[in-house]
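ok so for the tutorial part 2 we go from a plain amino acid sequence to predicted structure tokens. step 1 is just haveing the sequence, like this:
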Amino acid sequence: MSAQPFFLPAGDAGPGQRFCLHQAASPAVAARGAIIYIHPFAEEMNKSRRMAALQARAFAGAGFHVLHIDLYGCGDSSGDFADARWELWREDVALAAHWLRDSFPGPLTLWGLRLGALLALDCAHRLRPDGLLLWQAVVSGQAHLHQFARLQTAARLFGGDTAPGADNHDIAGYTIAPALADAIRRQEAQPLPPPCPVQWLELAPASTEQPPALQAASMLVIDRWRQAGASVTARALGGTPFWNSSEIVEVPALLDASLDAMDSLAPAGVLP
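step 2 — the prediction. this is what the tokens look like for a chain of 272 residues:
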């Protein structure tokens, strides 16, 4: 079944409305719950659309309702990117969660990619979902912004953009408000042990000599979370980092691994 687009009024959550895509669970299988997809930052959102759509269809075929929501100032939702704020994005995730919980019974999972994974983690402490599925989670907001700043520096070097007084918050073609940049810099995964089970999936280069491995920064966070009592299952897979690839690519191994992860977070047969 095709995903159904609609606009969700933000109401008290913020100005305007949010563009959503609802991928309904297949009627041919038993319902197993609902999933909110929280997209990554800036251009990574666009590069990831194909993989997000493929995964949503796979989840729907396994009995899950999936809701994609364009955060405020992103995609087809109200607002400009320059007006986006972390607090508004947090309210957007809550808005999506309330819509799903009102519409469909069963476990609720937050599925976040890159900075969207860090936002999912932040929201989990308020929304208390039943599980978190994290794809290539950003563990430090400050490091993530530095990465985008390097992209802008490269663009200026190769494009000859040396105009005086350039806005330091114009990064890789996106105007980022100082308030949003400051909020992102403050986000760190390590001090936020999740209140629910976590399935952590990463893509990493693979070779014939050694299998894919989690990043050292990820392992540090995961170890600290486990010491704090969190339940975390982590796995590295070989595959192309589609969120920043020059072309749209697919990673079937990640799609399969995510289905396996949801078997753990929301086992079949939990709903009558």
